[in-house]
Amino acid sequence: MINISAAFCKAAVYVQPVESSLSRPEILVAVKLWPVYMEMLCEAYTVHDRVHVLDPARFAAIAPHIRGIAASGEAKVPAALIQQLPALEIISVFGVGYDGVDVAAARARGVPVTNTPDVLTDDVADLGVALMLSISRRIPQADKFVRAGLWPNGPLPLSRKVSGARLGIVGLGRIGQAIARRAEGFGMSIAYTTRNKKPDCTYMYYPNAQALAREVDFLIVITPGGEATRGLIDAEVLAALGPKGYLINVARGSVVDQAALVHAVTTGAIAGAALDVFEDEPNVPAELRAHENMVLTPHMASGTWETRRAMAQMAFGNLQAHFSGKPLLTPVP
Ligand code: NAP
Ligand code: 8YV
Asked: Could you report the per-residue pLDDT of 206-221, keeping only the tens digit for each?
């Protein structure tokens, strides 16, 4: 069991005591990481916490010694950073999505990239379904209504039924399938789109998001991010979803054209949206924050103690495997 000191949790930047950092592999932490994971890293490695952005002069001095990068699903590890690290051997992502890492640049240097698949699937699927229920049954609005003492004045307006409705899933991978299994419990009819039709899947397949959106009440997006999916959910897809349709995004903000989404919710082109991810996190446009028919969460789909611990063990395990010459646990394909 790891003990996290209060000082450590509060620290804006972690500075490792010198005596605990001698002759260990040096790791660059690319983004603010969960304190429990940071403690694990600090027990095994010499850790440089975000030095490349916070202290460029010091970074220039330590860059030649960096052998590993600890990143997260949100972290940016561009080619320019990889090129500055001549001794780099591994990039370990604390997250399943690795769209922030320039994998091609890493590969070109022979640097493997690892991620944390499967262990977060249940949590992300749970939140996807929770968001679908929240936006349709107006749970946050109902909570505000009761707290504000408005109940005695009359009932809350009626909401929209989920059980038996039509669900479209954009991206039927590990998490998409887990969402579908949960939706079966609600008696929903399930359809999906992916680039490759799944041969043994009984759900209705549509060749693209627009064709799928036309046929469903709820559209849940759960693809990878990155250039290949940028703006996949655009104005045409939202128009196809229609004024009674709801969009739920638990993938990446980049997958949805945010300007088109703002326009669609403000003009009533769709009924509403529930979003865990945004184009420029943690900044959320005022138009989205102000709108009544929105449920917004701060990129928290994998954010339970149980899952974050499992992710930390896997991300740390990949670094440990690499530095002890063992096969990596979960290299990205
Ligand atoms: P996965 O098993 O690799 O599944 C990805 C799915 O997306 C596959 O079915 C893939 O099928 C499909 N896909 C890829 N490109 C597509 C496109 N252009 N159009 C339609 N479908 C496409 O990954 P996963 O474990 O389910 O995770 C999915 C993503 O969820 C992650 O990459 C990450 O971005 C996001 N995520 C978010 C959170 C959060 O906190 N909100 C947490 C975890 C994960 P084809 O290859 O056949 O197209
Ligand atoms: C986390 C994620 O937010 O797994 C992913 O792709 O986006 C999330 O699980 C993240 O990596 C923790 O910072």
From this structure: 999 999 999 999 999 9
- Give yes or no: 26 in active site: no
Residue 10 has pLDDT above 60, yes or no: no
Residue % of the chain over a pLDDT of 90:
93
Domain spanning 121-296: CATH 1.10.3720.10: no
Instruction: State the Cα torsion 252-225-206-212 to the nearest 10°.
Output: 30
Catalytic residue chosen out of the listed positions 281, 308, 309, 322: 281
Residues 6+ apart with CB under 8 A from 253: 225, 275, 277, 278, 279, 280, 281
* Closest residue by CA, ligand 1 atom 30: 251
The answer to whether domain 6-118+306-323 has CATH 3.40.50.720 is yes
Q: Is 198 in the pocket of ligand 1 (CB under 6 A)?
A: no
